[in-house]
Design goal:
The chain is of the alpha+beta class. Among the domains are: about 120 residues, 2-Layer Sandwich (Beta-Lactamase); about 130 residues, Reverse transcriptase/Diguanylate cyclase domain (Alpha-Beta Plaits); about 100 residues; about 120 residues, Arc Repressor Mutant, subunit A. It is built from 29 helices and 16 strands. It has a 6-stranded antiparallel beta sheet. A 5-stranded antiparallel beta sheet has the order 8-7-11-10-9. A 5-stranded mixed beta sheet has the order 13-14-12-15-16, sandwiched between helices.
Length: about 775
């Protein structure tokens, strides 16, 4: 089956063209990527190989030079008469003639990189050393670790061994040494050896290193000479690396799965092998990424080509194949059919379309409700308003429209009496009742812009004029009778077109806000209430709110209640616009909640789940009662807090700061005043006041400076000293940060109006503000 499908695909010219282009482009991309990678790697090898070989040769010359100097000394000693005299003497004469060779060895061992020079006699196993003198036996030498391999000198002209000092000198304990040995030959027989111990660290400290490469030194037996610590790789891996490069001067090797470029050279003096390893991972990272991206791009191009072939042969003809399959559902290869056979298929498609149309018709109320909600909240633009109006309201007229807003009275108390599911059920029932109530004479669409309200867009079905206010009054009674829900209704002015409905909605909200003064279960029209209330007579309208807060912070419940009642009475007397009253009460409640939150005080039940709707759905009498209950609760809570140890401590700190403003006090001094730690005082002060000690002290100083600027003729520098600033510029910067002006400009702008301006009050935060 697959073979026939492939044959069909390849017989199509378009398929062959797509396939040819896809394969050609992919191969070209892959070849470019591989060629670029190879050329870059070859160029990188050329650039790095030469400096690394030169570095190895430099290090080789350094080590050769150091060993050649020591080797020359060893060769000279092997022919020196004094040394030969000792070698040829009888065992009994060794002690007598050892002094002169020892002095000579001591003289030669003065160089800093030479630890000791020894002459070893094979005939009687005696030794003379510049470090410990003459010993008649090798085993008596304080340091004789060389005895295990010194005899190898009889077979080799030169020995170099890496070893650890094992003598008794504590200063040389565990010191790394490189021992160079030369034979003493007489008449073709090796009769002794000269041994020079070199300082390992001093020798290899002369080698030059490169930050991006590793330097390694191996001896003739393949043992690692350098480095001695912090080996870059496991020994097993390094041994495999030696086998890979063999005697080649340059090779690419892999150690622990990573690629390195290896260069090596051999010393003709010591026979050592010097190797440098340069990691290629970082050097080839970018070019490898580019190569992989090109390969990935070629794979993507192949995938795109395959998708194109698939789309051309399957997706483009899918409708026809689907129709054929529908015409012959039981046929394995539904590839034939005629137009006559399409009739039942088309009939089924038409039926499906009708079913979907019914679904769309059933969804129309929800679409209309969403449209009205977007319209009154101004969430859609003018063009979208008109487009959706034509689609969703084909059976409506262009205008006019009425809009009324139904709101549940005392929504917070009503919602608290029901579970959320029951609330939704009752609101659903109210929505149905409203639609059925208006259905005979009005076209109606409802939406819920807020939890407490139901907005109703209406259009009369007949031209005759209807009394909407009277019908709304009957609707209020009907909802009260059937659902036991008390509602108030606000009616906006008539809208000539659909675009003006949002304005009518705002008017209905203003009309509904008259519930504040007139009570519950009433219908309010905007035309009746448009000029009924005033905007207010000035800042004194909110003075009662500040007095209530001051009373709370002083825990004076009686004064707070008095100001609440006075504010409510003044509001009724002046007839202040309801929306302004709602905002004022909302601000007061939010400030109360802020005070409670700053001190972690419990909230009264009325504020436990506070929302804006709690205020806007109540009348003034109930709002007054609610505020009285909240004031009593908050005053009692704050009064209890004022007796707490933490509050008294913070007040003690504030009093200390106020009495020492002129001094250069800091957090350490303030904490010491109450014998507490700086961290504890900072935490306590922040919890009680909501601000830091530093900010509070700075505000006290600036407020005191404002008083002095207005009440005295002192210079700025003198005022700065009186409020604790030793530097006038520091004072000016702090003043500008808080007051947004300089002290001089502050004095200038207030000198003509000082008797009218309010005096600056100390900036306190949270419950710690005291109005005593």
């Amino acid at each position: 089956m697959l073979r026939f499908k492939l044959k069909y695909l390849l017989n199509n010219k378009q398929n062959r063209l797509i396939l040819m282009l896809t394969v050609s482009v992919s191969l070209l991309i892959i070849l470019i990527g591989l060629f670029s990678y190879r050329e870059y790697r070859n160029a990188l090898d050329t650039e790095l190989n030469t400096p690394n070989i030169e570095l190895l040769q430099i290090n080789l010359d350094v080590t050769n030079r150091a060993f050649r100097e020591s080797d020359n000394k060893a060769v000279d000693l092997s022919f020196h008469p004094v040394i030969l005299k000792y070698i040829n003497s009888a065992s009994a004469e060794n002690a007598g003639i050892a002094a002169e060779p020892q002095d000579y060895l001591t003289t030669l061992a003065t160089e800093p990189d030479i630890h000791a020079i020894s002459v070893i006699k094979f005939k009687d196993h005696s030794v003379i050393s510049s470090g410990y003198g003459y010993k008649s036996s090798w085993d008596e030498a304080p340091e004789h670790a060389w005895t295990s391999w010194i005899e190898e000198i009889k077979e080799k002209p030169l020995l170099i061994k890496r070893r650890v000092y094992t003598g008794t000198d504590p200063q040389l304990s565990h010191t790394e040494l490189l021992s160079l040995a030369r034979p003493i030959v007489q008449e073709g027989e090796v009769t002794g050896a000269v041994l020079i111990d070199l300082d390992y660290d001093m020798l290899f400290s002369k080698m030059y290193s490169h930050l991006s490469s590793y330097q390694l030194v191996y001896d003739l037996e393949g043992d690692l000479i350098y480095p001695k610590l912090n080996l870059p790789f496991p020994l097993a891996e390094m041994n495999e690396m030696l086998k890979d490069i063999d005697v080649s001067p340059f090779a690419h090797v892999k150690i622990e799965g990573k690629a390195y470029m290896a260069n090596q050279t051999f010393s003709n003096v010591t026979g050592w092998r010097l190797i440098s390893l340069v990691p290629m991972e970082q050097l080839l990272k970018n070019v490898t990424t580019a190569r992989n991206m090109m390969i990935m791009l070629s794979l993507i191009s192949i995938a795109v080509g395959c998708c194109a072939i698939y789309y051309y042969n399957f997706a483009a003809f899918r409708p026809l194949k689907r129709i054929n399959k529908l015409l012959a559902p039981d046929t394995a290869a539904a590839g034939h059919g005629n137009l006559y056979d399409l009739e039942p298929v088309i009939g089924k498609l038409v039926g499906d379309f009708q079913s979907k149309s019914l679904v769309a018709e059933w969804s129309l109320p929800e679409l209309r409700s969403k449209y009205v909600n977007d319209l009154i909240t101004r969430s859609i633009g003018t063009q979208e308003i008109q487009t959706k109006w034509e689609h969703y309201f084909a059976d409506w007229q262009e205008g006019p429209f009425e809009l009324l807003l139904i709101s549940v009275d005392r929504h917070a108390q009503w919602a608290a009496a029901f579970m959320e599911e029951d609330q939704m059920l009752l609101k659903y029932a109210m929505n149905n009742i409203v639609l059925e109530y208006f259905e005979p004479f009005w076209r109606a669409v409802t939406t819920a812009p807020q939890k407490d309200s139901l907005a109703v867009l209406l259009q009369a079905r007949t031209p005759e004029e209807r009394d909407l206010q009277a019908e709304a009054i009957r609707l209020v009674s009907l909802l009260e009778e059937v659902l036991k829900i008390s509602v108030s209704i606000g009616i906006g002015s008539t809208s000539a077109g659909i675009a003006q409905v949002a304005h009518s909605y705002n008017e209905s909200m203003l009309a509904l806000s008259c519930r504040l003064y007139e009570g519950y279960g009433l219908v309010h029209t905007y035309t009746e209430t448009e000029n009924q209330y005033t905007e207010g007579v000035g800042p004194s309208d909110d003075a009662w709110r500040q007095q209530v807060l001051q009373a709370l912070k002083s825990s004076d419940a009686e004064t707070g209640l008095e100001w609440v009642r006075r504010g409510a009475a003044d509001t009724r007397k002046k007839g202040i616009q309801p929306q302004k009253v709602f905002r004022s009460i909302n601000d007061l409640l939010e400030e109360m909640m802020s005070i409670a939150a700053a001190g972690s005080h419990p909230l009264p039940a009325e504020l436990a789940d506070y929302t804006w709707l709690q205020v806007t759905t109540m009348d003034l009498t109930e709002l007054e009662d609610m505020l009285c209950r909240i004031v009593v609760h908050m005053a009692n809570v704050l009064g209890a807090h004022r007796q707490s140890k933490e509050y008294l401590q913070v007040q003690n700190l504030i009093a200390y700061m106020e009495s020492h403003l002129q001094e250069n006090i800091g957090l350490q001094d303030i904490a010491a005043h109450i014998n507490m730690g700086v961290s504890s005082v900072s935490t306590l002060f922040k919890e009680e006041t909501g601000t830091t000690v530093y900010d509070y002290l700075t505000n006290l100083r600036i407020d005191k400076a404002c008083e002095l600027l207005l009440d005295s003729g002192l210079k700025i520098a003198d005022i700065a000293l009186q409020v604790g600033y030793q530097n006038e510029n520091s004072f000016i910067r702090a003043f500008r940060k808080i007051k947004s002006t300089t002290p001089g400009k502050f004095r200038e702008s207030n000198k003509y109006a000082s008797e009218y301006a309010d005096r600056p009050k100390p900036r306190h935060s949270g419950v710690s503000e005291d109005s005593e």
